[in-house]
Amino acid sequence: MFSRVALLMLTLLLGLSQNAWAQPEVDWVHVDKSIRKMYLKSGDEVVKEYRIALGSKPKGHKRKEGDQRTPEGWYTLDYKKEDSYYYRSFHIDYPNAKDRRIAKALGVSPGGRVMIHGQKPIEAGFSPLAQNFDWTNGCIAVTNDEMDEVMSLVKEGTPIFIEW
Description:
With 164 residues, the protein is of the alpha+beta class. The chain has one domain (24-163): Beta Barrel (L,D-transpeptidase catalytic domain-like). The protein is 27% helix and 26% strand. The protein has helices spanning 2-21, 97-106, 127-130, 144-153; strands at 28-32, 37-42, 45-51, 73-81, 89-92, 115-117, 140-141, 158-163. An eight-stranded mixed sheet has the order 3-2-1-8-4-5-6-7, covered by helices on one side. The chain is globular.
């Protein structure tokens, strides 16, 4: 009888301790381009923080294809891509209707394929160094280990807010 009670108590204790260590669910992503940071957030609480690399002209909203900028505003992380040119990626649903209207008025293509992604697998050894430079074409880059974490913590359909 004692062993059953002890086993039940141990099971309850372990179950409670696992819940105490569980991370809050990520319900949105915040990118601050001005300080090269990306935050996975649950409400106002920061769940995870990452140093990011951007395109070579990071200040300002993306207006056209090839401008080396990352869009600003509210978007959605709409799908994950495992067979990415870079190590795994998460697609940002740029351009939205407003972006397309602006590009059309300017007579340019808005571009697309803006992602959060890791680095080329062959260059993974340079990950920490690469994060000190803006080297993407307008995407948001993290290290490959961080990309694994992002892919496991963030669900498709999660909103992302990008600002300068």
